[in-house]
Design a protein that fits this description.
Chain lengths: ~220, ~600
């Protein structure tokens, strides 16, 4: 009988102690010091000036803005998505930002350094029409195999429509991206083989004056 | 849009080239950047210390002195710098605000000096970052209270025109104001002390008389004590009535703690007077006399410290309650254990669990009276465990609670403040607007996205309405489907505009189908669309080609949108009332396609972009 009581009491004391421990651990501070050990310094100004079509001053301005936002010198995908999402508050820009990130991250190392950033911008803002179209093709071609399939285009289209968000006029329907892709393929896929190659793409875009006009739209951005 | 992210806007706009090949409509024209100023350094000379920064840094906040042309008033032509005769230390944080977008409050700074600097430079203090906001608010409140106290003191001197009542009240509350008040203060204090001492001495045995041994003094010198009591109660009653008369709000005074203490202190005497003859209730009468001890609490009017103690106890009530609760738990556990452990032994004092409570309390508080002692071995084991844990459970939290008093007190206040701040801060989150050019560029970017997807941003309510309409729209579906079988899902880039011109192919529809008032996004921002003519011509050109698939689905789209606006509420009566919408020629009689409709609305067309 005594033994039973002893066991009971020990169990209850253990319980009490456990509760006590739980009570006292309220102010356990979880300090996760994120030491971003990765730092990146870009190549020299002269080299970048040679590789891109920006002037020295423009590179300086670009770098100052870049470094202000990303003091460590590189942008990882999360930060990239956050930054891009701030421009599209109504929708979900993360998918498209992911594709964009892959388009900028030319060496596929998971982060965009200032060189990648400035090379991409150089093409987009100062490149020839061919280069811009090639860049756009590269963006659409998710697996970078040289062909845009309908599935890839559908992913891209869905990502773009996601950025619009829910509250649109007219109401976004499920099949809207798919139909848009159909329209796109009907226009671009000349030989109707189900994929769009880079030559078909460039040819078709060059014949379309709307697209040509809009390619010049952002030339004075910087 | 945060200022830091503004640096990425050119990137976002450049990346928009990725949408161009898939866009279904032509893009709007980009806003022109008229200020093609190259970035230049500005020198700000603040009382001799020179700060330098880029001009664009200062231009981020055009609502402030440094961001607007107001700083030109301080421009010094000879030295080509802006000179401000202000405190350079405070200016550091102000300049950092421009650089980083966050305003910090330096701890060593005086709050009123800092406020003045902020006001001078046109920055509202509400945008102080979260890291410094509490500190700032605390200091500001302290300062305000100090100012108020100072003001009150000055007011006391400066207001001779108080009537008698107010003078009396002031005299009661602040004994230092006049000699009479001081005298009154000391007299009442003296009588409170007398009354308390009397109560105490009443019960002391006074020595023996021939009739009885060891009477308490109260029964020996009844008359003397009675006179003393009467005198004290007289004074207290008079004081209470005077306070009641002088109080600015009698109702509030009667509800306050001090007045209740007063009443409780003097009431037993009167009740005793009334009931002296009735022997039955003498027991109750005796109990009432206990309340006379409450007179000691009247001292709290005389002592600031007592008041603070009472207040802190009240505010720490939850912590004390928790301590009590955990103690009760421990007591119950140990009492149960001891009872069952001692159940076996004979002549055990542990007759029941509540009886064991007493043992547990005495042991845990390490008092150890020894009136109840365990006799069995198990009982002794558990008894020792009980006393050990008593030390832990009781002795440890006591200093913690003592130090918790101030911490919890401040913490509670801070939590309330934060809750109150959250309510106001979300409203005050409006940072000063960044430059209009940035906003227009952002809107242009969003507009391009709209054009790419051939859908427009609307706000929540309109979306709900449209959704409802779209659901209702599914009914007269048959006819529509035949016409617009291709493009039901992609109404157009010209959706908005053609809606206005829409004609009704279905007879059932009301005329004046163009906007119901609510569908017009009156809260939206309007951007002039400069490329209207080209668009209408291109659209008209395309409309003639029936087989142009890839381009604007205007034809089908028009019909679709016409039907969308079918269940128009009565706001139809004024189709032309919206001046923003452009020319009034909006009711062509037939569903005739093509250019005629488009071109009539070509002038002064306003494209709406939802406010973002």
């Amino acid at each position: 009988q005594t033994v039973g009581i002893v066991v009971l009491v020990v169990a209850s004391i253990k319980l009490l102690h456990i509760l006590g421990i739980i009570n006292f651990s309220e102010d356990s501070v979880e300090d996760e010091l994120e030491l971003s050990a990765v730092r990146h310094r870009p190549e020299g100004l002269g080299q970048l000036e040679a590789q891109t079509r920006f002037s020295r001053k423009e590179l300086q301005i670009l770098y100052r803005g870049f470094k202000n936002e990303c003091p460590s010198g590189i942008v990882n995908e999360e930060t990239f998505k956050d930054i891009y999402a701030q421009f599209f508050p109504q929708g979900d820009a993360s998918t498209y930002a992911h594709f964009l990130f892959n388009a900028f991250d030319t060496d596929h190392n998971g982060s965009v350094s200032f060189e990648d950033f400035v090379m991409g911008l150089s093409i987009l803002l100062r490149g020839t029409i061919q280069e811009k179209l090639k860049w756009a093709f590269n963006l659409y071609d998710i697996n970078k195999d040289g062909y845009i399939t309908k599935e890839e285009m559908l992913d891209i289209m869905k990502a773009i429509y996601d950025m619009m968000g829910k509250c649109t006029y007219p109401v976004l329907k499920e099949e809207t991206p798919r139909q848009h892709v159909e329209v796109f393929f009907q226009k671009m896929d000349k030989n109707k083989d189900g994929v769009v190659t880079i030559d078909e793409f460039i040819d078709c875009c060059q014949n379309d004056e709307n697209i040509m006009r809009s390619m010049h739209l952002f030339e004075n951005v910087l | 849009m945060a200022t830091g992210v503004a640096a990425w806007l050119p990137f976002a706009r450049a990346a928009a080239i990725g949408w161009m090949p898939v866009a279904s409509c032509p893009m709007p024209v980009a806003p022109r950047d008229h200020r093609r100023r190259q970035d230049e350094l500005i020198i700000l000379n603040v009382s001799g210390r020179r700060f330098q920064t880029w001009r664009t840094t200062l231009d981020r906040y055009p609502d402030t002195l440094l961001g607007s042309s107001e700083k030109d008033f301080f421009y010094n032509e000879e030295t080509k710098e802006y000179f401000f005769d202000r405190d350079p230390d405070a200016f550091r944080s102000i300049l950092n605000f421009y650089r980083t977008g966050k305003l910090h409050f330096p701890r060593h700074e005086c709050i009123s000096a800092y406020d003045e600097e902020l006001t001078f430079f046109g920055i509202i203090p509400e945008i102080i970052g979260d890291c410094c906001y509490e500190e700032y608010k605390d200091r500001k409140r302290e300062n305000l209270e100090r100012l108020q106290d100072d003001q009150e003191e000055n007011k006391d001197v400066k207001l001779p025109h108080m009537n008698f009542r107010q003078t009396m009240w002031r005299a009661f509350e602040n004994p230092h104001t006049s000699t009479m008040a001081l005298v009154f203060y000391y007299v009442t204090g003296f009588f409170i002390a007398i009354s308390v001492i009397t109560n105490v001495v009443e019960t002391v045995p006074c020595g023996s008389t021939p009739t009885q041994k060891d009477m308490p003094c109260g029964e020996r010198y009844t008359v003397a004590f009675f006179c003393m009591d009467t005198a004290c109660v007289m004074i207290f009653t008079v004081e209470y009535l005077l306070r009641l008369f002088a109080a600015p709000s009698r109702y509030r005074f009667m509800r306050s703690v001090m007045s209740i203490i007063d009443v409780v202190a003097i009431l037993p005497y009167y009740i005793g007077l009334v009931m002296t003859d009735n022997e039955d209730v003498s027991g109750a009468f005796v109990t009432l006399r206990v309340f006379r001890v409450f007179r000691i609490f009247k001292f709290s009017r005389h002592s600031q410290g007592l008041r603070i103690l009472g207040y802190t106890l009240k505010s720490c009530a939850s912590e004390l309650g928790f301590l009590l609760f955990s103690l009760t738990m421990a007591i119950i556990i140990f009492a149960t254990v001891m009872f069952y452990a001692e159940k076996g032994s004979s002549s055990s004092k542990f007759t029941s669990i509540p009886a064991s409570f007493w043992y547990t309390i005495v042991t845990m508080t390490t008092l150890g009276y020894g009136d109840m002692v365990p006799k069995t071995i198990a009982g002794k084991i558990f008894g020792s465990i009980c006393s050990l844990s008593g030390v832990l459970v009781i002795a440890l939290p006591v200093p913690v609670i003592v130090s918790n008093f101030s911490r919890i007190y401040h913490q509670n206040q801070r939590a309330d403040k934060r809750r109150a701040q959250k309510g106001t801060n979300t409203g005050e989150q409006k940072l000063p607007k960044s430059a209009c050019l940035l906003e227009s560029q952002h809107h242009h970017l969003l507009h391009c996205l709209e054009k790419t997807t051939a859908h427009e941003f609307v706000d929540e309510q309109l979306y709900e309405q449209n959704y409802v309409e779209a659901v209702m729209q599914s009914f007269p579906a048959a006819r529509r489907e035949s016409v617009s079988s291709r493009d039901t899902a992609t109404p157009t880039c010209c959706g908005r505009r053609s809606k206005r011109n829409t004609t009704l192919p279905i007879a059932a529809l009301q005329p004046g189908v163009n906007q119901q008032g609510p569908l017009q996004e009156l809260s939206a921002i309007h951007i002039q669309c400069a490329d209207r003519p080209s668009r209408s011509t291109s659209r008209s050109k395309l409309n003639l080609k029936a087989d142009d698939v890839g381009r604007l689905n205007c034809k089908g789209g028009r019909i679709t949108t016409a039907i969308v606006s079918l269940p128009s509420p009565p706001a139809l009566t004024t189709p032309d009332s919206d001046n923003l919408r452009g020319p009034p020629t909006r009711r062509p009689p037939l569903p005739s396609p093509g250019p005629s409709i488009q071109t009539t609305t070509s002038s002064a067309n306003v494209v709406k972009v939802s406010a973002l």
